[in-house]
Known about the structure:
- This protein has helices at residues 23-32, 42-53, 62-78, 100-119, 140-154, 175-185, 196-203, 220-238, 270-277, 291-299, 325-343, 346-353, 359-364; strands at 9-12, 37-41, 82-89, 123-127, 160-164, 190-195, 244-249, 278-279, 307-309, 312-313.
- It is α/β, with parallel strands linked by helices.
- The strands form two sheets. The chain has an eight-stranded parallel barrel, surrounded by nine helices. Strands 8-10 form a two-stranded antiparallel sheet.
- Strand 5 (160-164), helix 6 and strand 6 (190-195) form a beta-alpha-beta unit.
- Helix 1 (23-32) packs across helix 11 (325-343), helix 3 (62-78) runs parallel beside helix 4 and helix 10 (291-299) packs across helix 11.
Amino acid sequence: MDVQDIFPACFASVSIGTPETPLPDKLRAISSAGFRAIELGFPDLLSFASSRLGKEVGPYDFNDLCTVGEEVKRLCAEHGLKILVLQPFSNFEGWSEGSKEREDAFVRARGWIRIMQAVGTDMLQVGSSDSPSSKISTSQDRIVSDLTELANLLAPHSFRLAYENWCWSTHAPTWSSVWSIVKAINLPNVGLCLDTFQIAGLEWADPCTTSGLNEDHPWGERGCYNLLEASLDKLIDEVPPEKIFFLQISDAYKPPKPFSKETDGDGLRPRGRWSHDFRPIPYSEGGYLPVTEVLTALLSTGYKGWLSMEVFDSGPDGKGKEYDLGDFAKVAMEAHRKLVAACSTEETYMAIWGEKLSAREQRQR
């Protein structure tokens, strides 16, 4: 049996080339490497629309985006690619009632739903908001109410909402915080998008330290593993596989110089800057996150489904990296196969988790 029959491979369109790279070239490379789906990145849709229509197409030009979205759907079909999800829908939740920002959030939501219909996907990825706490509410009741309203807009179309913790988020930076929100929403079309970077990049690593590790506790690398293991044990115990809508995979480079803990000129927090430029394909030279450990735990929930490469590789220094699209996609596919093989064996599982198996996992295995 092909590994893709159990864990089919997806590649985020924004993870290969640049926003200026023609989308057809990206699709050709992704398909030729053996991937079966893409995450359609909104920046790629904007770029393709501007190119195809010969004018600048903006993020609120929904008629134009839907017209070109139908062409993207055809292109993907020609390359044997499913559009798994439209992403990333950001800074949606937490705005105060009656505010211009809340009104804008729902204008965007309705427009993106139209785009989903045009491109033929049934899933919207929503990242936990990183808008400043001075501007949004961090009350879980407020967050749950907003996302419930979004889910109810999606439901008549049989569309799903995959909620992801961004590790620099204002109100939900951990898997457990987004899981608490998803449980409170308690709707069948709302689930999780879990990401090896977003989990390990907060609970194990830190781009602001010389060691590259989370130094909030005094036990060094072993302490980081202990913290991560405890968190992932809890994830295995609590999260049913059917509430994981898809998984994303990437590693991270340790920055050559620790980042400042301050936000940058755009208000982006350090882990957000790290995420945007320092995320290579697993097994790349210089990657240092415990990707195998995290993915092994995620698969140990019983999850079977899409594994998506979402990488942002600007090189170990974050300054940019040139590569052949086809070669890059092939390296990503090889990493997919290697990682699934490493995470799916009894020996790997026991070596990582030892006697920490929960009662539920012992029964399952």
